[in-house]
Design a protein that fits this description.
By secondary structure, the chain is of the alpha/beta class. It has 4 domains: about 1-25 and about 150-255, Phosphohistidine domain (Glucose Oxidase, domain 1), CATH 3.50.30.10; about 25-145, Enzyme I, Chain A, domain 2 (Orthogonal Bundle); about 295-425, TIM Barrel, CATH 3.20.20; about 430-585, Phosphoenolpyruvate-binding domains (TIM Barrel, Alpha-Beta Barrel). The protein is about 50% helix and about 15% strand. It has an 8-stranded mixed beta sheet.
Amino acid sequence: MRMLNGLPVSRGFVSGPVFLFRSTGSEQIPEYRIEPQDVSRENARLTDAFTLTKTQINSLANELKKRISGDEASIFDGHLMMLDDASFVGSCADKIKKELFNAEMAVNAVAEHYFSIFAAMDDVYLKERAKDVSDISKRIIQNLLGRGEVAISRLDRPSIIVADELSPSETITLPRNMILGFATDRGSATSHASLLARALGIPAVAGLGTISEVVKTGDLLLLDGTRGKVVLNPDGEEFAAFDKMVERSESIRVTLEQDRLTKGATSDGHMVPFLANIDHSTPMTDLYAVGAEGVGLYRTEYLWMAYEREPTEEEQTHAYTAAVRAMPEGFPVTIRVLDLGGDKITGNAAAHKEANPFLGNRSIRYLLRNRDVFRRQLRAILRASAHGSVQIMYPMIAAVEELQAANIELLSCMSDLKQEGIPFDENMRRGVMIEIPAAAIIADTLANEADFFSIGTNDLIQYSLAVDRLNETVARLYQPTHPGVLHLINIAIQAAHHHGQKVAVCGETAADPFLAVLLIGMGVDELSMSPNLIPLVKKVVRQVKLDDTKLLADEVRHMAGLSAEKIYTHCRNFVLKFMPDLMYMQ
């Protein structure tokens, strides 16, 4: 028996045989010089390989969107953009023509160049593109070599997949009915493969170091994705204890199904609406199934990525209206204006390259520099507001002048629509995302110009702590319970309440059941998260009284001198007193 500890990246307990997965892209790549007369032949091979790869990725993307919605469903958008990137394709062709590289050698050389560029970037979105480059290039080279994914064909029974690391395409290509769980040497909680595992409900542990070197196919493995542990070839006692945890976990899952349609509230009746984070591709019927009480974050940028250009006003209006009409009367749909910018914009909206786009011309900054793009989106949102309860939300606000400028554009669009006789909600509420430390600090001023706040904890934590959560070398420093972060959240909450406004949290912190209880105690009025996470967090909140949540918040305020890890542990232990079974929940 051997026990290994790693990172819990997707909750759940599972046991089964190991399937040791070796990436088909790990073999030696043939590299040689060709003769000048063979250039056209190699270019033809290259074109065919790109075409086949694009077909395969489109197929994977469509398959993924059948299974899940939200951010994770758009993971392959970056792959497809890269395959259509003229500079990427052209650089490969130039290697063949000018340096007489064979096609495999050309793709590998260009991919290594792009990988190094993206990997060195500070922007989270762009840094993740480095892994996309690696994933795409491996697939192109395999298609050049005429090799299928032979490793998958040997997976003939449900197994726990053990690998050095899994790419997004490898993760989704593996047959779902044969996957019990994932255990990898490398990876983080925020890698694309981990995001997919959570979205698909597959227990997973990453960062195990050397598990792919110490196991062999057929070994028995116990995997605890909740606490980040695996046990290799367990003894009888360990196996029996694990079986009890699995049984308890399944029993609790059944109760979650039974309670999912209840209203979000504490045990003593304090209402806490549970909202969903969605995009245009999210099946709205899924929201009813999990008991969502509205949309707390509609990510409009994924519409841009789907079209690979700026959608027209009519296209945007159609998409936003479809979401609004799908919600029951009175259920809000909070639409965030475009949260992309700089080199994140596709097609004709692409801006100039920036040294550090993460701190550059993105989100509201981009929109205020491109007023025509902004006005088309504002008009579309306003037109959708005629069909239900719509709220608009501005991201990346750092100064009150930005908020004032955005509201001026909104009022101007309202005036135009009124003159054109186009209906809209003249009282549509305007919100600000608190995701930059400066916004939290001046929250009292911002509240004079807005109707509500929504705290985007993902960016707030990153900007406050200068930590890229997708960078494995510093991911451990990404700490939602850092005293500085909690202090900023508290400032924003107090400012909102001082002005009689509500405040929501739409970042991943809201989906952590231990932290959700803390946030409610701090005064958060609404929680918004990925739809599939709502039942679990709602169940936990319904076990505690409002006074209990306030007690936890008060205790945490007095822990400002302690580490983020100790504060999180305190929150965990506090909540487990009310619901000890939470440790078994998937």
